[in-house]
Amino acid sequence: MIEKDGLKTGDKIPSERELSERLNAGRSSVREALRALELLGLIETRRGEGTFIRDFRGNQLVQLLSTFILQDEKAKTDVIETKYMIEVDCLKLAAVKFQKEELERLKVWIEEHNFEDGEFFKKVAEIADNHLFYRIWNILNDYYNSLELKASPAEKAEYLMLADSLASKNEELILEKYRKLRKMSTD
Fold it and tell me: Taking each helix axis from N to C terminus, what angle separates 73-97 and 131-146, rounded to the nearest 10 degrees?
């Protein structure tokens, strides 16, 4: 509803009565949902003014939800596996869609910047030009970061080799360079 109505941070949301009518739900259910959203920091109620959307794009929510969602090892493993699968798919799409200039800009960026792994894959996801993959990867990356894993960072040379593999458009080569970057065995 927020997206459909084009509401942004600071905008007032409809009253309980209006929400109840639009959502075809009881007012007590709407009231409960609003309380939950307020506890999560997504909205804030101002006495005498109404209820307003807060800036929820930060990772406070991810941090909070992570403590509940990622309690068991299976959930953690699922986040890591899914993030890696999305990255591979983004690499494959990027290989098909990139323009030569984009690849050159990516290589120059790798050489000239000190960056984190997430920053590199954010650029790859942008080149892949699939908005849904980009959004899913972003969420998974936030959860992944909340795991605070002790991973050894890859070398710039590995990112450059991965970027170069995109030009080949050879999926096996791209996967090989990705696995090397992630230090995954190929057995």
Answer: 140
> 102-133: per-residue pLDDT in tens?
999 999 999 999 999 999 999 999 999 998 89
Q: Model-level pTM greater than 0.85? A: no
Where b means 16+ CB within 10 Å and e means fewer, 64-77 reads: eebeeebeeeeebe
| Token pair of 15 as six digits | 């009253």
Whether residue 154 contacts residue 132, with contact meaning beta carbons closer than 8 Å, is answered with no
The beta strand positions in the chain, using DSSP E, are 43-46, 50-53
Spatial distance between the Cα atoms of 183 and 38, rounded to a whole number of angstroms:
42
Quick one: which of 101, 118, 116 has its CA closest to 156? Answer: 116
